[in-house]
Amino acid sequence: MIRRERRNGRVKLTFAVPDPGRAVSVVGDWNGWDPLAHPLRKRSNGTRSVAIELAPGRTYRFRYLLEGGEWADDPAADAFEANGYGTVDSLVSV
Question: Which of 89, 60, 74, 50 is closest to 1 using CA atoms?
C-alpha cells in the first residue's frame, strides 16, 4: 500500500506491506537504492511501514528489499518499468 499526503510543498508517502517475518526496506532513486536509508518498522497491526517526504512533480523508481537479498514489487505502484537487470521497478508519481 502507498498512501500520499501533501504537506508544505512536499508529498509524504507512506509505504506499508504485510509483515514478511523479516527485515524489509524501501529503496529507490530518492535514496540511492540504500537498504539502510528507509527500513520499514514492524507495527502492531501485522504490517511494516515507513513514511518519507519527496518533492512533487516527478515519478520515482523503487522496490522493496527483504532481508536475505530478495526483491519485491508493490502491487499498488502506479506503474512498472523494466530496469535493465532483467526485472522491473515499481513507479510512484507524486
Answer: 74
**Angle in degrees, CA 7, 80, 43, rounded to 5:** 55
CATH code of 49's domain: 2.60.40.10
SS3 for the chain is: CEEEEEECCEEEEEEEEECCCCCEEEEECCCCCCCCCCECEECCCCEEEEEEEECCCCEEEEEEEECCCEEECCCCCCEEEECCCCCEEEEEEC
Total domains in the fold of the chain: 1
Query: pTM to 2 decimals?
Result: 0.91
pLDDT digits (tens, 9 = 90+) for 33-74: 999 999 999 999 999 999 999 999 999 999 999 999 999 999
Full residue range of the structural domain in which residue 86 is found: 2-93
